[in-house]
Design a protein that fits this description.
Elements: E1 4-13, E2 16-25, H1 30-37, E3 53-55, E4 58-59, E5 71-74, H2 82-94
C-alpha cells in the first residue's frame, strides 16, 4: 500500500533486544513510531531518552519523517564516558600496568 510505511523500532539492553515491526501511515514521525511501539510493554525498565534516538545509527530528532524500511533505534545512556575510559587505560599503561 502506497500510503503505508513498514518500519522497525529497536531497543536493547545488555542481555536482550527487542525489534518491533510496525506499519504506520506515510508522513509518520520518529515520535509517532516510538509511541506506537509501546516499548514499555516489552522492556519495562528501558530508559527512554527522547534525545537519544536515531535511524540506522545516525542520531535524529523526534520530528523526522520516516521512510519505508527505516529502523528507529533507541539508545541507552553510556555507562562510562569513552574518553575517560581511554584516559584511564593510557594512565595505566604509562604506570606499567599497575593500578
Amino acid at each position: 500500500m502506497a500510503g503505508e510505511l513498514r518500519i522497525e523500532v529497536v531497543a536493547a539492553l545488555p542481555d536482550r533486544q527487542v525489534i518491533l515491526p510496525l506499519r504506520l501511515p506515510a508522513g509518520s514521525t520518529v515520535a509517532e513510531a516510538i509511541e506506537q511501539a509501546a516499548l514499555e510493554r516489552h522492556i519495562p525498565d528501558f530508559p527512554i531518552d527522547t534525545d537519544r534516538v536515531g535511524i540506522f545509527g545516525k542520531v535524529c530528532g523526534l520530528d523526522r519523517q520516516l521512510r519505508d524500511g527505516d529502523r528507529v533505534e533507541l539508545y541507552r545512556p553510556l555507562e562510562a564516558d569513552p574518553k575517560e575510559v581511554r584516559r584511564q587505560l593510557a594512565a595505566l599503561e604509562r604506570s606499567g600496568g599497575r593500578s
